[in-house]
Amino acid sequence: MGLEGLNPVFGKVFAEANRTAGKPIPFVFQVCGVGDELRVIASDFVSNTYQAKLSGAQLEDLRDDIGISGSWSDFLDYLATSLSSDVKLIIGDVVESEGASCSRIVSQKAKGLPKISIRLEKLVGAVAAEVNAILALELYSEFINTRHSLVEEQRSKDQLLKLVDAKEEKCSILTQQLAMLMSPRKRQSMNITSTGDSDSSSIIASQDSPDKNAHGSPNVKRVTNRVVPAHRRSKLRGAVLDYTEDEQG
User: Fold this and answer.
1) 89, 13 in Cβ contact below 8 A?
2) Nearest 5°: phi and psi at 118?
3) Would you state the torsion angle of the CA atoms of residues 76, 82, 83, 87, taken in this order, to the nearest 10 degrees?
4) Which end of the chain lies in a sparser environment, N or C, as judged by fewer CB atoms within 10 Å?
């Protein structure tokens, strides 16, 4: 059960006195895995430095105390998330002139969920100075890593923006080329349509013209003034009377 899956957690918290009232003091804390141990450091970089180291067995006890079920990675995830959420640093009783001999860091992932409470011991002298140096270097390393991540993210963003601009420019060029290709076809189509309309109009006009109806219509017959011959005209003059023998006698 290693701590490889636990990413370092940094934060700022204002210390709360357990019994004595005073102005809240800002502390910087760090939670990280060192080998098979969990190390917790809290310091104001002045005169108060606290540290706790929890072995694998102690972490198992902590896991049982807070009642986190599931896998080991689930427990580490809950631990890291809690220490990144609502965190309090409670300073213990003041002992003589050296301040509180211990403190307790308390965190909770969300309201209603189990709390994590870890006791820290006060460090003094060279040990405290060494731990402060470790904390400062870890903070600087975290700052460098964060800045590098931001730079890489910004570089990726710039590359994506350039890619989008290139795609938009390419689409614009293709649209212009397509418009140029479609323009002659459109004009040709308009010319064909105009020619067809003109031919249709000519055909309709020729069909409706009087000359066409007079000369070309098969149903219309021209009436001419024909001269009747003389021998036929004599026969048609006067009335023809038929007399029977009875009428004559």
Assistant:
1) yes
2) -125, 130
3) -160
4) C
What is the C-alpha separation between 213 and 193, in angstroms, rounded?
Answer: 29
What single-letter DSSP state applies at residue 159? Answer: H
Provide the β-strand partners of residue 37.
Answer: 34
Sign of the CA dihedral 214, 218, 220, 221?
positive
Residue by residue, pLDDT tens for the chain (249 residues) are: 667 668 889 999 998 776 555 677 899 999 988 888 899 999 999 889 999 999 988 988 888 888 877 888 888 888 888 888 889 998 875 554 455 688 889 988 888 888 899 999 999 999 999 999 999 999 999 899 888 889 988 889 988 998 898 888 889 888 888 888 887 666 666 566 655 555 555 555 555 555 544 444 455 445 455 555 555 555 444 445 454 544 444
Residues 6+ apart with CB under 8 A from 195: none
Q: Which of 156, 29, 153, 167 is nearest to 91 (CA)?
A: 29
